[in-house]
């Protein structure tokens, strides 16, 4: 089955940058619908960014547009999230999620649509 391993989280000051990585195994990321989610303490898990698939371009939550960029390295079977101009409100546990697109079935921002998850990597932004 698909397995996901995340890395790259850490503590940064507001305005700084981090690059998160999600290494996939069990299938190629080209075969999957993939997305980044995040969850802050006491808040619901929310979608952050998703990869393009089947002609649909990558998309982002309004709160991160212009600051975050999702990308992938197919040769390394790895998904990335480049996070720039970080804000305190970006502080959260960030998760990589994946599933076959026919399973996601268009529910790209719904955590329950994805059956494969990484362990999460913590991002903490200080003022």
Structural commentary:
It is a single chain. The protein has 1 helix and 11 strands; from the N terminus they run βββββββββαββ. By secondary structure, the protein is mainly beta. Strand 7 (68-73) and strand 8 (78-83) form a beta hairpin. The protein is globular and about 40 Å long. The model has no long low-confidence stretch (mean pLDDT 95).
Helices and strands in order, then pairings?
Elements (H helix, E strand, L loop, with lengths): L2 E5 L2 E4 L4 E8 L7 E7 L6 E5 L8 E2 L7 E6 L4 E6 L8 E8 L1 H4 L11 E2 L3 E6 L1
Parallel strand pairs: 2-11
Antiparallel strand pairs: 1-3, 3-8, 4-5, 4-9, 5-6, 7-8, 9-10, 9-11
User: What order do the helices and strands follow?
Assistant: EEEEEEEEEHEE
Distance between the termini: 41 Å
User: Helix segment count?
Assistant: 1
On the 0 to 100 scale, the average pLDDT is 95
Strand residue content: over 45%
Counted beta strands: 11
Unreliable spans are none
What can be said about the biggest beta sheet? Answer: 7 strands, mixed
Broad shape:
globular
Radius of gyration: 14 Å
Portion of residues within helices: under 10%
Report the structural category: mainly beta
Structure, briefly:
The protein has 127 residues and is mainly beta.
Keyphrases for this structure?
127 residues, mainly beta, 7-stranded mixed β-sheet, 4-stranded antiparallel β-sheet, 1 helix, 11 strands, 3% helix, globular
């Amino acid at each position: 089955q698909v397995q996901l391993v995340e890395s790259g989280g850490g503590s940064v000051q507001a305005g700084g940058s981090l690059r998160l990585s999600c290494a996939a195994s069990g299938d190629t990321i080209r075969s999957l619908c993939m997305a980044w989610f995040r969850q802050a303490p006491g808040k619901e898990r929310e979608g952050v960014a998703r990869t393009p698939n089947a002609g649909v371009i990558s998309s982002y939550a309004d709160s991160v547009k212009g600051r975050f960029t999702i990308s992938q390295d197919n040769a390394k079977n790895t998904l990335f999230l480049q996070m720039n101009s970080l804000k305190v409100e970006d502080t959260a546990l960030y998760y990589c999620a994946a599933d076959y697109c026919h399973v996601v079935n268009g529910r790209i921002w719904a955590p329950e649509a994805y059956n494969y998850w990484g362990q999460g990597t913590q991002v903490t932004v200080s003022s």
